[in-house]
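Regression test case RT-17, inverse folding.

Input:
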């Protein structure tokens, strides 16, 4: 039982996902610090005066629970955009390039599919000659009729 658990943990794709999550967490911390200490002061300064941030006080003055802080929302939005760009350009693009060098495709749209008439599964590639699920022979794919 422990041997099976060990082989599950040591699968390549699980290790890849774990490394990706650790890298994402590290980038998240870095970008969070950037938005907290660089972007937030800039957004807060846009309102001017002695305001806590960019927003409105909806209740009693000084009550943080009733302060509508639009600046924090704008900062969170900027954080999200920066974080997604970092993940895309530093993880996804190199991974796609790595997979392409090995003749594999990553993050591509699935090709067209058809439905098996026997078991009604809807995930068969159009060119399949047998069903993945019930192993029945499939009719050949029909090509569009050529004009003329």
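Golden output:
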């Amino acid at each position: 039982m422990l041997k099976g658990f060990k082989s599950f943990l040591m699968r390549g794709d699980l290790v890849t996902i774990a490394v990706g999550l650790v890298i994402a967490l590290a980038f998240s911390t870095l970008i969070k610090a950037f938005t907290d200490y660089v972007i937030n002061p800039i957004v807060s300064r846009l309102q001017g005066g002695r305001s806590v941030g960019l927003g409105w006080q909806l209740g009693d003055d000084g009550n943080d629970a009733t302060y509508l802080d639009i600046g924090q929302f704008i900062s969170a939005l900027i954080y999200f955009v920066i974080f997604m760009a970092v993940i895309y350009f530093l993880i996804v693009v190199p991974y796609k390039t790595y997979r392409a060098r090995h003749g594999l495709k990553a993050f591509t749209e699935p090709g067209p599919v058809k439905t098996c008439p026997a078991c009604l599964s809807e995930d068969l590639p159009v060119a399949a000659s047998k069903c993945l699920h019930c192993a029945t022979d499939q009719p050949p794919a029909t090509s569009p009729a050529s004009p003329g």
